[in-house]
Design goal:
With about 190 residues, this protein is α+β, with helices and mostly antiparallel strands. Helix content is about 20%, strand content about 50%. The termini are far apart.
Length: about 190
């Protein structure tokens, strides 16, 4: 077989090989553009508000809870909201106000969950013959619409007569029930 007859068999393959090389080159260009676009998506806030205050009302127009922060930042890439020095006050017609604050916080994209982090404190005001109660932890998840809060971190609860230490807590403010989850230790203070 001579060179001319061999090239006759390979000649139809040349356009196919050229098409394959072009597709490979095109794929490389698209992958580079995707990588550049992914790197350009930055985590920058689209809104910043200093001295933020919000009030949510019930159906009768009575304040239900108050949320404030030294600064609020909204990030569009994750639809997340970060808070500096957040403070939440849950109000009730029948129960005393509960005030929650921390160093940092987040609000869920739907606004139905508030997370408090770092040096979190909760104060339930005194009412009637019941003394004020304070709670300290490093993390607290709050569902304001459900009057619910919980944590899986260490907590310390102090009232006029007791100091309680535990790991984990569930707090139902509607029923005024605190459920301590594990490693509970209590100290009673004599009057």
């Amino acid at each position: 077989m001579n060179v001319v007859s061999r090239s006759r068999y390979w000649l139809p393959m040349l356009p196919l090989l050229a098409l394959l090389a072009f597709v490979y080159w095109l794929d490389q260009q698209v992958q580079q553009e995707i990588a550049v676009a992914a790197n350009n998506q930055r985590h920058d806030p689209d809104g910043i508000m200093d001295n933020f205050h919000a009030t949510k009302m019930d159906l009768q127009g009575v304040p239900r809870f108050l949320l404030s922060a030294k600064q609020l930042r909204h990030y569009p890439d994750h639809d997340s909201t970060e808070l500096d020095l957040p403070r939440l006050t849950m109000l009730s017609k029948v129960n005393p106000p509960v005030h929650m604050n921390g160093i940092r916080g987040n609000v869920s994209s739907r606004g139905d969950e508030v997370i408090f982090r770092d040096d979190v404190s909760v104060l339930r005001e005194a009412v009637g013959d019941q003394s004020a109660m304070t709670l300290r932890t490093e993390y607290l998840r709050v569902l304001p619409n459900q009057d619910w809060a919980d944590t899986d971190k260490a907590v310390t609860i102090v009232d006029a007569n007791n100091t309680v230490h535990a790991i984990g807590l569930e707090m139902d403010n509607k029923t005024r029930i605190l459920k301590l989850l594990s490693q509970v230790r209590s100290e009673h203070h004599a009057k």
